[in-house]
Write a sequence for this structure.
C-alpha cells in the first residue's frame, strides 16, 4: 500500500475553482487563480489524508449543504479581494 500525504481541502478548492472561473468575471491568469486559492485555503481548515479511504471520508463533507455554502461564500469573497487588488497590470 502506498501512502501519500494530501490536503483534501486544497484538492476540493482547486476543483471548485476550476468550475468557478468558467462563470466568474475575475481575471483567469495564473497569478489571480493562485491568489484566490491562497486566500481561500488560508481561511479554511486543512483536511490532511494519507490513504484513499481517508480521502473518501473527507469527500463526505461535499455532501453537506453548509460546507458547499461556506465554500461558495469564500470563493466569492476571495474573488472580490483579488479583483479589487490584482497583482498584475
Amino acid at each position: 500500500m502506498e501512502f501519500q500525504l494530501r490536503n483534501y481541502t486544497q484538492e476540493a478548492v482547486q476543483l471548485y475553482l476550476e468550475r468557478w472561473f468558467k462563470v466568474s468575471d475575475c481575471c483567469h491568469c495564473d497569478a489571480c487563480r493562485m491568489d484566490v486559492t491562497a486566500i481561500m485555503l488560508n481561511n479554511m481548515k486543512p483536511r490532511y489524508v494519507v490513504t484513499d479511504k481517508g480521502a473518501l471520508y473527507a469527500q463526505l463533507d461535499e455532501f453537506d449543504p453548509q460546507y458547499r455554502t461556506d465554500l461558495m461564500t469564500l470563493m466569492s469573497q476571495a474573488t472580490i479581494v483579488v479583483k479589487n487588488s490584482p497583482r498584475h497590470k
